């Protein structure tokens, strides 16, 4: 990984042009703060050292973002003084290269970041840029005053990357304000290479930018969703008893289901559906019937194991559907209790769990009331970037 490079994320501004009373980098975007999205963008690009430059007033909020890869530094009154403070904080353990990025650009892609990083192998500095394609005007008092030739004009983006010692010396020698760090680097005589920018790497400024960013994030999440389906099927025969365990509820009946465990046919089918979605075989693989410790075992143990395995892999349960096939006992009166019980065991919302029943019109072994069958489907989801 890229240990010899640090990302310096500038988030000390007070900008509230987008509306609301929060500076834009702390506003919520698709359920998380702008800065959380920005930090994750650099993590996805393999950057292991991040300096987050904040306003002292935001220290409490920023403490929630501190992680082994994130260090907080108090910024100054201007962007230039904020970046300089962060650079100086790195002097005692200096990286070879530094990437300086606007905290309010949460949609920067790994490819934009990595193109800048790769260019630094041969250049003193590099920054993403987009050619200007629109006609340009100079305006005065709301009127067009002049056309401006756009040939050779580019829109600057971040992260802007530099050799650490180069940009530190450039900052120490610079006086006054600057639009970005490329301006400071060029004032010190550095050669800056342009790398490909991206239209989605927008700097959030106005409310319309937030609306667009929300749409882009939602689209990315849908595009990158890893969805897995699994099915399960189980059968248990009737034997003597006073009721059947079905989906975690004991349903009164003049017989019971027989099996190595508690013979909860619905829970077994659902457990196998989750294992199936994970390509992890079935209950028999994880809890062999030949092993006496599982004799009479509570089926909750099996379902909880499947759910733990699902979470370890970074998946969540989108929904599941269990169908019990029997003439008797009647399932309808107990279906809601079964839903609630399964949701409780799996630690999910009840609306993600469906339990229903059907008869087989008196056909076959279920029709002859020799036993009960169950089929189940489980749908799991995760973002493809997750592990």
Automatic annotation (TrEMBL):
It catalyses: 2-C-methyl-D-erythritol 4-phosphate + CTP + H(+) = 4-CDP-2-C-methyl-D-erythritol + diphosphate; 4-CDP-2-C-methyl-D-erythritol 2-phosphate = 2-C-methyl-D-erythritol 2,4-cyclic diphosphate + CMP. Its cofactor is a divalent metal cation. A divalent metal cation binds at residues 234, 236, 268. The keyword Oxidoreductase does not apply. Residues 227-380 form the 2-C-methyl-D-erythritol 2,4-cyclodiphosphate synthase domain. The record marks 150, 203 as: Positions MEP for the nucleophilic attack. Transmembrane segments: none annotated. In the N-terminal section; belongs to the IspD/TarI cytidylyltransferase family. IspD subfamily. This is Bifunctional enzyme IspD/IspF. It comes from Roseinatronobacter bogoriensis subsp. barguzinensis.
